[in-house]
Specification:
Layout: H1 12-19, E1 37-41, E2 46-50, E3 66-69, E4 73-75, E5 78-79, E6 85-94, E7 106-114, E8 117-128, E9 136-137, E10 142-146, E11 163-170, E12 176-177, E13 184-185, E14 190-195, E15 263-264, E16 268-273, E17 290-295, E18 302-310, E19 314-324, E20 332-339, E21 344-350, E22 360-367, E23 372-381, E24 389-402, E25 413-414, E26 418-424, E27 439-445, E28 451-460, E29 464-474, E30 481-489, E31 495-501, E32 511-518, E33 523-534, E34 537-550, E35 561-562, E36 566-572, E37 587-593, E38 600-608, E39 613-622, E40 630-637, E41 642-648, E42 658-665, E43 670-679, E44 686-694, E45 702-703, E46 705-708, E47 711-713, E48 721-725, E49 728-730, E50 735-742, E51 745-746, E52 754-756, E53 766-773, E54 777-778, E55 780-783
Parallel strand pairs: 45-54
Antiparallel strand pairs: 1-5, 1-14, 2-3, 2-13, 3-11, 4-10, 6-7, 6-9, 7-8, 8-10, 8-11, 12-14, 15-18, 16-17, 17-24, 18-23, 19-22, 19-24, 20-21, 20-23, 25-28, 26-27, 27-34, 28-33, 29-32, 29-34, 30-31, 30-33, 35-38, 36-37, 37-44, 38-43, 39-42, 39-44, 40-41, 40-43, 46-49, 47-48, 48-52, 50-51, ...
């Protein structure tokens, strides 16, 4: 049915003033009558400053329009859709009829489809920095940033201050308005209804009950054959047992800002502290609080139970950071249980923890061999130990991998010419035990491309980022090398991110390996794969998760925004310097700034309630020729903000990527997340790759430890040769880099294990910095004592 012709009748007296305000709307094709509808929500937090009751101008021939005053990112927010809602970019243009950006910024118009049928459009004006300029737009995604005076926009007849002009337009009859003038607006504020044929003309308000769709149409959005709660995350296929969209940490109060979800076992002391409360310099790892606990009884400690519908093969992973309270040395174990029926668990012990800023990462996974009804995350401090355990940044998440702990290996397949088995503790050699659970994998191959893999379906769009991790070691009696890769499949051009591993140790020396891949096109499946190159690789605790970050691998940087005074580029391997390659994929980011608060960020809409915990991680390094430092922050945004942050400094270059991670726990409701990098102003250039956030388990790369500092031998006089002794490091098999210094300043070109003293250094004291490196560990530097003055 064509739209009524009287719809187009707009008097000349009304039309003339509009030309001074906005561009002419694009014509749209008529559509059939429909009962399908969706409620349009406010794109920003702020207040309604202009409403249909005025009536407000409608420059894009919409059914009604609103101005919502606010700043920051604007989002394509909808609710109460009676079908499968999809959005796409219809057009982008200037907001104002003058055609000048300076008069009011730009406009984006979105097509709104329900069950594949177009019901109308929504225009959002006075924006800039569109992260998506064509194709599909995820529901709830950031669509742009509200222009401000700092963007070069000045007051005009079209724009008088930062706001978003929102204008819905039905394809059949008319939509209706809901919000009132001067109403406070947030992510739950309904502006009006699109579709549904709810009005007989323009600028009409909805009748009571209009927002509830008259004919709810349950749909299967994730392809599992069911219309259920998992459909709120259609990008991940899976039954309702996934517990809905796994977009956040399953733990409540993982940062202990709100400890209400935690329980203490009998005879356990459990408190939370703020910075410097227990001892000066004893600060939370992220946020404002951390936990502290000890016990006098076996089985004592703290725990939290999480309802979950678990089936055989499901893998869940948990992580945390722990340290000793000042004045003692803590030990204990960290366990993830599956409860209901016969319990199963994965566990990791800890001991000899440092204090203050010496947080140690812990992680474990557990794979179900039967059905369960709950998870339990639990700490067991050693009874009557000399130290109190402090904990922060706890995360539990479901892996997309089936059988990631190899208790059930049915989801895994072997390539041709590959030997693949699973072992229990001590089956191959005494002391060769699983990292978590009861079994681990072992594989080798006689053919190039041999190894093991697992495929699972996923609806993947350009910009989506998936990250994988595992722990690997060599089988006793040999060494092992290979490559760990995450593939995006389902097109003629698959994409991947991979990390090579080598020089692996045996038995208890599990080494972490991780990688991410960002899609530049649509795909329909993910593959996690191990390629065996030399020796027998043993693997355990395999995890794959989808990041909330768009473009976390920077193959496409459209989801990222740069603050004022910030230089932000992406590079391909070897583009800046030889040997400076992407950590995964083909691109990485590089940023620096000359102002405080500069850097890059990405916003993601999220419905966050008190107790929710989100975690984020990335890898960073210095650009060749400099030394970078800065801060990595995960924000919760809304009427007020909360954050978790971690600083980074003295980063190495080239292949020496350093992990950085943080978590934040909400103490109130929020409407969005922001992951942000703040490089030190006028410092070195930070390079970034593999950004993941949402339900991400923490990176568990440990630092090498030095039990004896480096030293210098030789005569301290001009033209003599000094030699560096590296000291004692754990674990063994470590490689070293050297930098000689004079009175604390680096000597240019003095980067060997020996140094011939130059005449210009007479009267100065010399020292050497030894940087230890090993696969699976963060590089660590140690400095020798200074020599006497050069004679």
């Amino acid at each position: 049915m064509r739209r009524p012709t009287q719809r187009r009748r707009i008097s000349a007296t009304l039309l003339l003033p509009l030309s001074a305000f906005f561009t002419v709307a694009l014509a749209q094709s008529p559509a059939s009558a429909t009962s399908l509808q969706s409620t349009v929500l406010s794109p920003v937090n702020g207040s309604v400053t202009s409403a249909p009751s005025e009536p407000h101008h409608r420059p894009y021939a919409g059914d009604y329009s609103y101005d919502v005053a606010g700043t920051g990112s604007a989002y394509a927010r909808f609710r109460n859709t009676n079908g499968s809602l999809t959005l796409s970019v219809a057009s982008i243009g200037r907001a104002c009829a003058s055609g000048r950006f300076s008069d009011g910024g730009d406009r984006i118009t979105l097509n709104v489809m329900i069950n594949g049928q177009k019901v109308g459009t929504v225009a959002y004006a006075h924006l800039t920095g569109f992260p998506i300029t064509s194709g599909a737009v995820p529901v709830g995604a950031a669509i742009g940033r509200v222009v401000t005076g700092s963007d070069g926009v000045s007051s005009s007849s079209c724009w008088t201050g930062s706001h978003v002009h929102v204008e819905p337009r039905n394809d059949s009859k008319y939509g209706c308005a809901i919000a009132s003038l001067r109403q406070r607006a947030d992510q739950d504020t309904a502006l009006g209804i699109l579709g549904g044929e709810r009005a007989a003309g323009v600028n009409q308000y909805c009748a009571a009950g209009s927002e509830t769709p008259s004919t709810p149409v349950p749909t299967d959005q994730d392809g599992d054959g069911l219309a259920d709660q998992s459909d709120r995350c259609p990008g991940l296929a899976g039954p309702a047992s996934t517990g809905g969209c796994p977009d956040r940490n399953l733990v409540r109060g993982g940062g202990f800002e709100d400890a209400g979800g935690w329980q203490a076992m009998p005879r356990t002391n459990f408190v939370t502290y703020t910075a410097d409360q227990a001892a000066q310099g004893e600060r939370p790892r992220s946020g404002a609080r951390n936990a502290a606990f000890n016990t006098s009884a076996s089985g004592g400690g703290i725990y939290q139970d999480i309802p979950a519908s678990i089936v055989s093969g499901d893998t869940y992973c948990a992580s945390s950071f722990v340290r000793s309270q000042t004045g003692g040395v803590a030990s204990g174990s960290f366990t993830l249980w599956m409860l209901g029926g016969t319990s199963e668990n994965g566990t990791r012990s800890y001991s000899k923890l440092g204090t203050k800023d010496s947080w140690r990462p812990l992680s474990t996974c557990v794979t179900a061999t039967q059905s369960h009804s709950a998870l339990r995350i639990q700490f067991y401090p050693t009874p009557n130990a000399s130290g109190t355990t402090q904990a922060d940044d706890i995360n539990v998440a479901k892996s997309l991998v089936k059988g990631g702990g190899f208790e059930d290996a049915a989801g895994w397949a072997a390539m041709p010419s590959t030997n693949f088995v699973t072992y229990t503790a001590n089956q191959v050699a005494q002391g060769e035990v699983p990292r978590s659970g009861r079994r681990y994998a072992a594989f080798n191959s006689s053919a190039s491309g041999g190894g093991i893999y697992q495929d699972f379906p996923a609806s993947i769009s350009a910009g989506d980022t998936y990250c994988g991790s595992s722990f690997v070691r060599a089988q006793t009696g040999g060494t092992a090398s290979g490559r760990f890769t995450v593939w995006l499949l389902g097109t003629t051009e698959p994409e991947n991110g991979g990390r090579t591993y080598g020089s692996l140790s045996t038995k208890g020396n599990w080494a972490p390996v991780s990688t991410c891949v960002t899609a530049t096109r649509a795909h329909s499946a993910v593959r996690v794969q191990f390629y065996s190159e030399k020796g027998t690789t043993q693997a355990d605790d395999v995890n794959v998760a989808r990041s909330l970050a768009k473009g976390g691998g920077f193959e496409s940087a459209s989801g990222w925004n740069a603050m004022a005074g910030t230089n932000f580029v992406t590079y391909t391997s070897n583009q800046v310097a030889g040997g400076e390659t992407a950590r995964s994929g083909t691109h990485y980011a590089a940023i620096n700034t000359n102002v405080s608060g500069g850097g890059i960020y990405q916003d993601v809409p999220a419905t966050i309630t008190a107790g929710d915990t989100y975690c984020a991680s990335a890898f960073v390094r210095s650009q060749t020729g400099g030394t970078a430092s800065g801060t990595f922050t995960l924000w919760m945004l809304g009427s007020t903000s909360e954050n978790g942050s971690r600083g980074y400094s003295r980063l190495s270059t080239k292949e020496h990527w350093s992990p950085v991670s943080t978590c934040v726990t909400a103490t109130q409701n929020h409407s969005a997340l922001r992951v942000q990098f703040y490089p030190q102003p006028n410092g070195g250039t930070t390079q970034i790759d593999d950004v993941g956030f949402g339900n991400f388990s923490q990176l568990t790369m440990q630092s090498l430890t030095s039990s004896r500092a480096p030293s210098v031998t030789g005569k301290v006089r001009v033209s003599s040769v000094l030699k560096a002794k590296v000291g004692i490091w754990s674990p063994s098999g470590t490689s070293f880099r050297y930098q000689w210094r004079a009175n604390g300043a680096s000597i240019k070109g003095a980067t060997r294990s020996s140094y011939k003293i130059a005449r210009s250094l007479r009267g100065k004291k010399l020292s050497v910095v030894v940087t230890a490196s090993r696969f699976g560990y963060s590089s660590k530097a140690a400095t020798s004592a200074s020599t006497t003055k050069v004679r």
